[in-house]
Amino acid sequence: MSKQEMERTTGVRLLFVASVVTTGILYLLVVPRLYFASELDRVVIFVMVGWIPYTLLFYCLGRLGTTPTGMPKMRPADVGVALFVVAFLVSLGFDRWGVTPERVPEAHVIQLLAILVGLGLFGWGIGRRGAAIEELVSDTDT
């Protein structure tokens, strides 16, 4: 492994650790504390903010955990985006009908899980593709 590859891997590993820590703090400490304190409007904000490190976490898993032999298809990322959009639109539809997360949080749990699965698939698909591109670029450099 060359010095440049080692530096890139170190950067992805640092991003992975930061994403795990941030996601853990948000979803295991902040969100439950706000939920049990009945500050449901702030819970929604922190859940949505947590989507960014969660997606980056799966991006890093895709970069570090796969060794593609060719250019992988983007199907997981496409399915992830579609699942995210559909679940988000269903959640917005519930809001329109008066079933907001602040009033009936249980009604939005399935949409939240679908959004998280969608973001995970998106991040992992992009990470796999990034690993393949990096492999192709490093092969042409040598």
SSE inventory with pairings:
Elements: H1 3-36, H2 40-49, H3 51-65, H4 75-96, H5 109-141
Helix pairs in contact: 1-2, 1-3, 3-5, 4-5
Notes on the structure:
The chain is 80% helix and 0% strand. It has 142 residues and is mainly α. The protein has one domain (3-141). The mean pLDDT is 89. The protein has five helices and no strands.
What is the compact description of this entry?
This protein is mostly helical and 142 residues long. It is built from five helices and no strands.
Give structural attributes.
142 residues
Q: Radius of gyration from the CA trace? A: 18 Å
Largest sheet: none
Order of helices and strands: HHHHH
**Low-confidence spans:** none
Number of domains: 1
Mean pLDDT over the residues:
89
Shape: elongated
Distance between the termini: 12 Å
Give the tally of β-strands: 0
> What's the helical proportion of residues?
over 70%
Percent range for β-strand residues? under 5%
